[in-house]
Amino acid sequence: MAWPEGAHRNNAFLVLHVFLQGMVYTEYTWEILGYCQELDFSLCYLLLPHLLLAVNLVFFTLSCLTDPGTITKANEALLLQVYEFDEVMFPEKRWCSTCDLRKPARSKHCSVCNRCVHRFDHHCVWVNNCIGAWNARYFLIYLLTLTASAATMAIVTTVFLVRLVVMSDLDLYVDDLGHSQDVDTIFLIQRLFLTFPRIVFLLGFVLVLSFLLGGFLCFALFLAATNQTTNEWCRGDGAWCQHCPQAAGTPSAELRAYRNIHSHGLWSNLREIFLPSTAHGDRKKK
Ligand SMILES: [Zn+2]
Ligand SMILES: [Zn+2]
After folding, report:
1. Distance 41 CA to ligand 2 centre (A)
2. Domain-located, residue 132
């Protein structure tokens, strides 16, 4: 395994990704772990984000360094046999003039990496690699563990702050008559922010991240379950459905004729992601 070949590749987003992940974990370890241990939180529970990070880093590295399915003269003939041409989105007689190769169905030329990729999904700037047939499984697990680590960090931080509020009576104030009164939520958040600004900021950040990543993960799982790539979904404008012949009056003749011919049921679709066809060819047209 080696860094895939490609011209004009930019590592800026990859470096930013590693930097942000490092910052969040440092902050979590420094601020939350220390306080939580004083509050007798279970260590297994507190270290769950670190365990997820270890798994995440393995799959991040695999997503970065695994060949996504580069089409070459050597494997061109074999990969042409893997998927059926639909003659709508992927016509049979198409060439990539840059690579001087025939284009297998579901492949695409990546202008960033300057190569044609088998079952092209998208070019991910965060891992600085294309996501294709041979690394889609790693990318999916990477996304899953990244979302899980952000979510567990958000849960631990929230539980810590709630316990802290209850223990330190931050949710109460004493009025002019000397009676304890509940403070309202906005005031409580302000109080927490003034007392623990870095922890509240961390919680806000990981909460937003959890929702964004969760949304992206759901989309990626939906595509995997229905055997679509992001490239196909965008080009088909989300119109792929093997059960739905196109509605009459669809403006584009291309869309009208189009339906997903690659989906063969949930388990078959997932098997295709997790046990992809290789350059040695273990899969033929269905
Ligand atoms: Zn090409
Ligand atoms: Zn690429």
Report:
1. 44
2. yes
| Residue ranges of E strands in 20-111 | 95-96, 101-102, 108-110
- Note whether residue 27 is domain-resident: yes
Antiparallel, parallel or unpaired: β 95-96 and 180-182: unpaired
What are the tens digits of pLDDT across the range 71-120?
Answer: 999 999 999 999 999 888 888 889 999 999 999 999 999 999 999 999 99
In a domain, 59, yes or no: yes
130 CA to middle of ligand 2, Å? Answer: 4
Q: Does the annotation mark 44 as catalytic?
A: no
What's the 110 CA to ligand 2 centre distance in angstroms? 5
Query: Residue 258 — φ and ψ, nearest 5°?
Result: -90, 140
Any domain includes 282 = no
Task: Count each helix (H run) and each strand (E run) in the chain, helices first.
Answer: 11, 8
In this prediction, residues 16-32 reach a mean pLDDT of 91
Percent of the chain residues topping a pLDDT of 90: 55
Which ligand has its closest atom nearest to the C-alpha of 64?
2
Domain count, the chain: 1
Tell me whether residue 50 is exposed, middle or buried, using C-beta atoms within 10 angstroms of its C-beta: 0 to 12, 13 to 18, 19 or more: middle
Q: What is the per-residue pLDDT for 251?
A: 47
Q: What is the pLDDT of residue 286?
A: 43
Helix axes 48-65, 136-168, angle to 10 degrees: 160
Catalytic residue among 96, 124, 130, 244: 124
CA 219 to chain centre: 9
Q: Which domain holds residue 190?
A: 12-274
Q: Compute the distance between CA of residue 184 and CA of residue 166 in angstroms, rounded to an integer.
A: 14
Q: In this structure, what token pair is assigned to residue 261?
A: 């011919």
Residue 165 above 90 pLDDT? no
Q: How far is residue 121's CA from residue 132's CA, in Å, rounded to a whole number?
A: 5
Q: Give me the mean pLDDT over the 186-196 stretch.
A: 82
